[in-house]
Amino acid sequence: MAQYLEFRDAKCKDCYKCLRECPVKAIDVESHQARIIEDRCILCGHCTLICPQNAKVVHSEVSEVKRLIANGEKVVASVAPSFISSFEQEDFLAMRLALIRLGFVDAQETAIGAQAVTEEYRRLLQEGTMKNFITSACPAACRLIQEYYPKALPFLAPVDSPMVAHAKIIKKQIPEAHIVFIGPCIAKKREGSECGMVDNVLTFEDLKCWFDEADIHLKEMARIPSMTQHESVNLSKLYPISHGIIKAFDVLPEGYEYMSVDGHDRCIDALDNIEYLDHVFIELNICKDACVNGPCSLVQSGGSIKATSDVRDYVNREKNVLHESVAPHYDIDIKAEYPRLRNKSITPTERDLQEILHKTGKFSKEDELDCGACGYETCRQKAWAVFNGYSEIEICMPYMRQRAESLSYEIIKASPEGIIVLDSDMNIVEINDKGCELLGIDDPNVKGYPASKFFNPTDFVLALTRKRHTESKQQFIVATKKYINLSVNYLEGQNVLFGIMQDVTEAVNYEKQINQVKMDTLATTDAVIKKQMRVAQEIASLLGETTAETKVALLKLKHQLSEEK
C-alpha cells in the first residue's frame, strides 16, 4: 500500500492531539509513537494542520515528475482552481507560463473538468431519481462515505471528480500525455493513484518548493489578461470555495433543497442523519471553507476568508469580460462507481470490551469517564481500539494517574524511612507514617500545617535558598528523643522540598554505649596501672631493704671467716 502520509518519529511527543482530532480515528499509537492506519485513513490531512510538533510528513512526488520531464515525456499539468488564492494570482496565464518553464508541455485549469462534472450533475438532478444528492468532488468525503457511511452510498453522485474528468479530457486531446494534478489536497494522491488516469499528484507546497528551487517568481512574470482565451465564463472555477459547486449552476435544477456542508465534523453530522433527509442536494467538503483551506494550501494573509474572496473575484472578473456561461461539450464518459470499502478492523464482542475495560479499572458505567484524553470520545471506543491493536491499555490518563498516585502513595506509606514534603512556605504537603513517628506528630490532619510547629526546618530553608541538596547527620528530635539523618532535595519543577529521614537512634545509642565501654575500660586500665605501679614500688622498697640486710650479714660472715684463718 502506498504511503501518502506519515509521522516523524523524533517529533512525535505523545500528546495524542492528532488522534483526538482525527474524524475516523485512523491513528495507531504503539510504544508512544503515532502511526497512520492506511486502510482507515481518508487522507483529509487535518492531522497535518493541528500537530503542534509538525510531525506529519506528506509524501512528495516531485522527483517522479522531474524524471518524466527529464525523459522527454509529454507532461501536462492540471491545476486546481484554488491556485488563485494560494499563489495570489489574478489569472492563470502566469501559472501556465511558470509550469512550462519547469518543463511541462502544457498546463490547464482543473476547472475544465469541473465544468463537465457540473453538467453531469445537472443531468442527474433533472432526472430527479435520487432521493438525496451528495457531490463527489471531494475524495476525502467520498472515502468517508465508502468506508464508514455505506447508508449514504446510494446518494453519492456516480460522477468522476473534476480531477479525473479533466484527466480524461486531456487524454482525449493528447493520448500520450502524462498527467500531473497540482492542488492543496492530500486525498488527491490516493485518488490519482487509484483512478489510473493521473500519473502523479503534487501539492501546492510541493510546487512552491520547486518554483523556489528553479528561481521562478510568479509575481515578477508578465501578466497578460487570459480571459479572452475562452468563449464563455466557467462558473465551475468556484468549486474550491464553500457553496462553490452550487454557484457553478447558472440555474439550479428544481426539486432539491441546496446546501453546502464543510468541515469534517459537519460532514459527519450530515451523514449520520442522511436517511432523515429528502431531496436535499449536499455539497460536501471535508475541509472547513472547502478547498481553499486544504491541508497543503499556502497560507496567506487573510486566511480562508480572503482566499474565498480571491476566487470569487477571479470568476467575477471573467464574468465582466465574457458574460455568457455556456459549457463546452466533451465527448467523454465521466460516470463513476463508488463501491463499499471495508477496512481490517474487527468488531469486538461485549465480553471482549468488558475484559479490556476491567484492565483499566472500569467495572461499571460510572467508571467510564469518557474524558477523551486518550484521543477517543468514549472509553468503549478506546477499548475497541485496544482490541484491534490501534492503542495500548496504558493510554488512559485517569487510570494511569490513579495508578501512579496509588502506587506512589503505597510506596511512600510503606517506606521504612520517614518521608516529608514541604512547600516553599515551609508548610507540610505530604508526610508518611514513619515521618510522623520520628517527629512525634499524632495529628492525622497535619497537611497544610507549618513545619516549624513540629520541628526545626532550618535544613529545608537552606535547601530552598541554595536550590540544591542538603544533608545533616544525627539531628536530635526533642519530641521523640530520636536521632535522624536528614536528606533534603529541592524539586525545582514543583517548587517543593522532599525530605528523607533515616532513624539512626539505635546506631547513635550503640555508639554511645561503645564509647562508654571504652571510657570505662580506659578508667579501669588506668586504675590497674596505678595499682600495679604501687605494688611494684612496694616490692621494690621491700626488696631494697632485704638486699641491704643480706649484704650486711654476708659481710659480717666474710669478716669472721677471714679472722679465723
Describe what this molecule looks like in 3D:
This protein is of the alpha/beta class. It has helices at residues 17-21, 46-50, 62-70, 83-86, 93-102, 111-127, 139-148, 162-173, 187-195, 204-213, 244-247, 264-272, 303-322, 350-359, 379-387, 397-414, 433-439, 458-466, 505-564; strands spanning 5-7, 27-30, 33-36, 56-58, 75-79, 106-109, 133-134, 178-183, 200-203, 257-262, 280-285, 418-423, 428-431, 470-477, 482-491, 496-503. Strand 2 and strand 3 (33-36) form a beta hairpin. The longest helix has 60 residues, at 505-564. The radius of gyration is 44 Å and the shape is elongated. The model has no long low-confidence stretch (mean pLDDT 88).
Give a brief description.
With about 575 residues, this protein is α/β, with parallel strands linked by helices. About 40% of the residues lie in helices and about 15% in strands.
Global Rg: 44 Å
Mean pLDDT: 88
Counting H and I runs of at least 4 residues, what is the number of helices?
19
Low-confidence stretches: none
Strand content: 5-15%
Distance between the termini: 144 Å
Largest sheet: 5 strands, antiparallel
Envelope shape = elongated
User: What percent of the residues sit in helical stretches (DSSP H or I)?
Assistant: 40-55%
Structural class: alpha/beta
Strand order of the largest sheet: 13-12-16-15-14
- Give the total of beta strands: 16
